[in-house]
Write a structure and sequence with these properties.
Length: 495
């Protein structure tokens, strides 16, 4: 058997869909033995998670399967080193290897995305957004017109100066996409600190087309005059014209920030180019590294040179010490994303989403915006007489893992919702193509058509309980097992 941990130059690096007989099996067996000698329950949970991931249809739009090289990189002693600060400017001694790791990861990020600057320390997407928000505020502090306030470096400001600054700016204003249109909590919504830092207003989507109405965004920006215009989403199934958004930001003097957490893989894989590539248009671009980009869990900020010094203050301003092992895994995943094989993968993610949407539509499902042109699909399950919560649970019973999500102007709110969000990044990594995604669409519609809301004690339909017709879960699981068996996850990895 070949050792496919060694990247093959012609086919690209070994992915979660590759055969991993040999070295990877040995590495994981040994690791689990060592873990089990200390805490067997953790070794067991780790094995069980692999079994669960192998045996379910993972359609969560924000999840993926990282490559063995990326996963293995996280389990090392690079985790043990403190390295607060930036490359060559650390608050701890002996950081030369972390300097190498961080430089290599940043270099790959800059080259891959064509960015002027990359900051790879954020521990997650939320952290990346917080770093970007503080960078924008700090940058404003350095604007010459503020010199008259006696304000200097944000790190050297006294409490009285902070007070002056807060007074000067009054409410910080951020304009981002509304949650029910697909925006993210970190774009100025109350449950997140951004909702406290900023006075937030959101732009929705056109009630008819359910797509972004750029004229409406422009009108809101002119009226609201935001400090930051935010683009990016978690549940919007369409591409965004970032050139147009930048024009709007420039018109009102706003900093333009894009959160590409969901679709970074499509940018990296050159599926989104020109006006749909945020990097040439935004002042700052934030992302996670673990969704369509297929790296370790983490975050990243790309910025223009102008914003770089402010971004560099992320640690210690809002971040703890960087995670050396995770930055190393980011470097490995970003190197993978620079291969032609990743571009093929990214195109397949988008093509498969089209097939999935087409398969659902042709079987009578209703989709927000009527389809997709990115990696995700949002099904409005109200046409099946279900809430998102009921649909999500019934699908899970049948071995299909999705998540409920609000649809625009959702009558069921953010908890029960009327939508189910699904995405193609994970199963595309496993090797699913058009035939499999069409079959997945068929299975989803079968489950939804076979589910009905359970009535409450008062005899009215409830929002959480449901009844899935007998035998549907079993037949769906059997059909999935056939496809999953043909496209094994980490094939050859026998624990
Ligand atoms: N930004 C967007 C658009 C997201 O969808 C998410 C995650 O769901 C995040 C940020 C937060 O990422 P993390 O969970 O890594 O903090």
């Amino acid at each position: 058997m070949t050792d496919t941990l060694t990247p093959a130059t012609t086919t690209g690096p070994a992915t979660a869909g590759s055969d991993l007989s040999g070295a990877a099996t040995q590495a994981y067996r040994s690791a689990l033995e060592v873990i089990a000698s200390v805490e067997p329950r953790i070794a067991e949970a780790t094995r069980a998670e692999l079994a669960d991931q192998r045996s379910s249809l993972k359609l969560i739009a924000s999840e993926n399967y990282a490559s063995p090289a990326t996963l293995l990189t996280m389990g090392t002693w690079l985790s043990d080193k403190y390295a607060e600060g930036t490359v060559g400017h650390r608050f701890y001694a002996g950081c030369q290897n972390i300097d190498t790791v961080e430089s290599v990861a940043a270099e790959h990020a800059r080259e891959l995305f064509g960015a002027e600057y990359a900051y790879v320390q954020p521990h997650s997407g939320i952290d990346a957004n917080l770093v970007a928000f503080w960078a924008i505020l700090a940058h404003r502090v350095e604007l010459p017109e503020l010199a008259e306030l006696g304000l200097k470096n944000i790190n050297e400001m006294t409490e009285a100066q902070w007070e002056t600054l807060r007074h000067k700016f009054g409410n910080q204003r951020a304009l981002g996409m509304s949650l029910d249109a697909g925006g993210h909590l970190t774009h100025g919504f109350r449950p997140n600190i951004s909702g406290k830092m900023f006075h937030q207003r959101s732009y929705g989507t056109d009630p008819q087309t359910q797509r972004i109405d750029y004229d409406a965004v422009r009108a809101a920006a002119r009226e609201f005059k935001p400090l930051i215009l935010i683009a990016g989403y978690s549940a919007y199934p369409r591409r965004v014209n970032f050139a147009k958004m930048r024009e709007i930001a420039d018109e009102v003097g706003a900093t333009f920030m894009v959160d590409m957490a969901h679709f970074a893989g499509l940018v990296a894989g050159k599926v989104f180019t020109g006006d749909e590539d945020p990097v040439p248009h935004a002042h700052l671009v934030t992302t996670t590294t673990h969704k369509s980009l297929r790296g370790p869990r983490g975050g990243m900020v790309l910025a223009t040179e102008e914003y770089a010094p402010s971004v560099d203050r992320g640690c210690p301003m809002v971040l703890g010490g960087p995670l050396g092992n995770v930055m190393a895994a980011k470097a490995v995943a970003l190197a993978e994303a620079r291969t032609p094989a990743f571009q093929t993968y990214a195109q397949a993610v988008a093509d498969n989403a089209q097939t999935l949407a087409g398969g659902l539509l042709s079987r009578g499902a209703q989709l927000v915006t009527g389809g997709t042109d990115n990696h995700l699909v949002l099904i409005d399950v109200s046409s099946f007489g279900l809430t998102g919560r009921q649909a999500e649970s019934a699908l899970l019973d049948a071995g299909i893992v999705t998540n409920r999500n609000a649809v625009p102007a959702d009558p069921n709110g953010a908890w029960y919702t009327s939508g189910v969000r699904i995405g193609t990044p994970a199963l595309t990594t496993r090797g699913f193509g058009a035939a499999e995604f069409d079959r997945v669409a068929e299975l989803i519609v079968d489950v939804l058509e076979s589910t009905s809301p359970a009535t409450t004690a008062a005899g009215t339909p409830g929002k959480a309980k449901y009844v899935l017709a007998d035998g549907v879960a079993e037949r769906t699981k059997a059909a999935s097992a056939e496809m999953l068996g043909a496209h094994p996850l980490y094939a050859g990895l026998e624990l």
